[in-house]
Every structure is written in C-alpha cells, then in structure tokens.
Specification:
Layout: E1 3-9, H1 17-29, E2 34-40, H2 43-48, E3 52-54, H3 55-59, H4 63-70, H5 88-100, E4 103-110, H6 112-127, E5 133-138, H7 154-172, E6 179-185, H8 192-195, E7 210-212, H9 221-227, E8 232-238, E9 251-256, E10 262-264, H10 267-278, E11 282-286, H11 291-294, H12 301-319, E12 325-333, E13 338-345, H13 370-376, E14 388-389, E15 392-393
Parallel strand pairs: 1-2, 1-4, 4-5, 5-12, 6-8, 6-11, 7-8
Antiparallel strand pairs: 2-3, 9-10, 12-13, 14-15
Helix pairs in contact: 1-4, 1-12
Length: 410
C-alpha cells in the first residue's frame, strides 16, 4: 500500500535549496510507492500548525514549473528557526499530523540545526516503533557541515563573493588615491565563504589583497603594509572574525538566538572605523549580506546539479527503508571533477561544525593556500540557463507564503 511523502525546508536560504526540493519531488512523482507529496509551509513550525500544501497538485505534469523551481533562490516552502527539544508532547503532535496525512516518508532540507531535527525525530519514531522514514537533505552557504565534501548552496554563494570582489577590484583600480575596501562575507566560525574570495584573482588583478577567516585572529597591521605596495587594498573578512582573545569583534553584547548562537552585526563597519583611526585613508565597508545567498542568476551550475541530485538520493534512501540518514557526497577527483553520492547517519552532521584546516590558511593567517584554491575551483563552474521575463529572472512565485494558515480539508 502506497504512502505519502512530506517535505520541509528550514534555516537560512540558499540559491539552490529549491533545486533539492525539485529533485526530491520529481523523483517522488515517478515512484509507485508514493501517492501524494505534501509540503510543510515554514518547516516543523508549519507542520505543527497544520500549514501544509499539496506539491503534487502544484507540480505534477508541469516540467516547466519544476525547472523554474530548480532555478529559483530562497525557499519555496518557507523556513523556520524552530528548535525541537525533548518535549514528548511535541513529538506526539508531529506524529499525529503525519499520520493524519498518511505520511510514510519525511524529508527535511536544512543545515546543522535542521539535521538535529532529523536526528531527534528519527530516534523518536524508532523508539516508538513508528514506521515513518526520516531523511535529511543538507544545505548551507557556510560549508560547515560535517560528513560531506561541500554543502549545497556554498558553491553559488562562493561564486557570488568572488564576483563581488572582482567587480570591486576593477572599480577601485582606476583611482590613484590610497583607499581600503573591506568586504564582509557570511561565516560565523568557519571561513569557507570568505576564502572563496581568492577565486577573484586573475592574471590582471591580485585582489583580494588580504583574507581573514574566523579561524585566525585579525590584525590591522597587515593593511598598513599592503598600502605601501598598492593604492587600493581590498580586504575580505568573515563576519565571525575574532580578536587575539578569541572574542567575536562584532558580537552584540551577550545576545544569543534560540540555538545559542551569538548574534553578530557589523564586522565590516567596525573594522572600517579601526582602519580609519589607525591609518587615516579613505575606507569603505561593503556588506553583501543576503545577496550572497540569494543571487540565483549567478548561481553555480555545479551547485544546482548537485543540490538536485541530493534531493533525489534522499528520496531513494527513504524508499529503500533508510531512516535517520542524510544524503551526501564525496569528491572522487578534482581533474576531472567527479563526486559520488551516498547516505550517512545524520548524527554525524547534527550540531557539528567543519572548520577550515589550518594548513589551508597561509602562515601569516591573512590568505589561503593553493590547496584551498584547488578545492574551491570546481564548485563555482557552470552558468544556469535561467528563464527570463521582461528582462528579469522568471523565478517561481512565493505568494503562497504570505498566507498565515493554509489548511487542507480532512
């Protein structure tokens, strides 16, 4: 007897998270073991509110719309920052909703905290002999997930950062006055995205001149040295860079979010004031902010393809009877670039963090090594054929997310 599948998205968006959703639903539609595919609006939080849509009704037999979904940034199903604790009552409520919709397969697309949800829910169903397969699909622009060579969403964000640095480098090179441009990339404890700025270097431009990752304390003295050699110095920093005492330089007091993460704000702006005070030249702080995770028109085709495939692998795993796992990939070679897809226990990735190896950062702590470049280079390759309308990308609409409650009849 066929069962239904339900899919949710959680955490921060990426340019390719909907590609994983597209891969999952398209493969699910082809299986005779799955009847209907539902979507949670706003993740676990929406599930508990019975805020569920019928994805089969929306996408079945509509290849053009599935392709638009594959190339649309943000999250078609919306997101949440819901912390699933140890309250048995909440788990029971979740299972009641899943049983109501005859769910046999549960997929959750997200990062570290989302994989924690998959881990906890799969352990609960196993301990209570509930036959619902719980599978995770990874994503994060931070690339800090353990158990995977690189995270879906990272390649596209890395490409955006490299493009931003390259464009700023050409813009600022035309002036003869001394100046410093500080570009702040996302990354709390792991500097993968900041490191990707090194890809902006080509035969005509050496920018960025300095790269600071959270793994190494920041020093303003390096900037002074670079200004002796260049009129315009471009510095790329992670939002989570720390001082010599290991403290975030942009932490807002003792404020933390519900997951215990320190809330950061304005690293680039803070460093701008420091450089102005100690050096006295023209300084600008640039913060791409959400642009680095939402630029679907400059996404990496490698990233889109891998995100889609990981959605397919997750559904296959669920249909094969696996639970408490997440879809993942490992790199087989750099040249030619090839990867292998498989599944791993979700407990490996839940609440863990993959930092940049010290050997991939130069000895001075202000740049990356060739090993990092070799690792990054394949991930930004390829240009998607995004459909356009009226001169702008024809992304799939998200107007349904404006509806607070969207309940289906029993």
């Amino acid at each position: 007897m066929s069962k239904n599948m339900i899919i949710g998205q959680s955490g921060g968006p990426t340019a390719v998270i909907n590609s994983s959703l597209a891969g999952a639903i398209e493969y699910a539609f082809s299986s005779n073991k799955i009847d209907t595919v539902y979507g949670m609006i706003n993740g676990i939080q929406g599930l508990l509110e019975n805020n569920i849509i019928d994805l089969k009704e929306r996408f079945y037999g509509k290849p053009y719309d599935i392709n638009r979904l594959r190339l649309t940034p943000a999250m078609f199903l919306g997101s949440c920052r819901y912390k699933l604790g140890d309250d048995e009552k909440i788990f029971a409520e979740i299972i009641d909703v899943l049983k109501k919709y005859n769910i046999g397969y549960f997929l959750y697309i997200g990062g570290n905290d989302s994989m924690d949800t998959v881990d906890k829910l799969s352990k609960y169903t196993a301990s209570h002999n509930i036959d619902i397969k719980i599978v995770g699909v990874p994503k994060t622009i931070d690339n800090d997930l353990v158990g995977i060579d690189h995270s879906p969403g990272f390649g596209s964000a890395a490409k955006y950062i490299a493009l931003a640095v390259k464009n700023v480098a050409y813009d600022t090179s035309i002036y003869s006055i001394k100046s410093v441009h500080i570009i702040e990339a996302m990354g709390r404890n792991a500097g993968w995205l900041t490191a990707a700025s090194a890809l902006a270097r080509d035969g005509d431009s050496v920018a960025p001149h300095l790269i600071y990752l959270p793994e190494i304390p920041f020093s303003v003295e390096d900037v002074k040295g670079k200004l002796n050699d260049f009129n315009s110095v471009i510095v790329v920093v992670s939002e989570g860079i720390k001082d010599e005492n290991g403290n975030y330089i942009s932490a807002r007091g003792d404020n933390v979010d519900k997951f215990g993460h320190v809330m950061l704000s304005g690293t680039g702006a803070y460093l701008k004031s420091v450089v102005e005070e100690k050096i006295g030249c023209k300084v600008r702080a640039l913060e791409p902010s959400v642009l680095q995770r939402s630029a679907g028109h400059t996404a990496s085709m490698t990233d889109i393809t891998e995100a889609y495939n990981l959605g397919v692998v997750a559904v296959k795993a669920a249909l094969d009877g696996k639970t408490g796992v997440f879809s993942t990939l490992r790199r087989i070679s750099d040249l030619p670039y090839t990867v292998d897809y498989y599944t791993e226990q979700v407990s490996v990735v839940a609440n863990n963090e993959k930092l940049v190896p010290r050997s991939w950062i130069n000895e001075q702590g202000n740049d990356v090594t060739q090993k990092m470049i070799e690792y990054l280079s394949p991930l930004v390759k390829g240009v998607p054929q995004v459909p356009y309308r009226n001169g702008l990308p024809d992304y799939i609409g998200l107007s349904h997310l404006d509806i607070k409650k969207q309940k289906y009849k029993d």
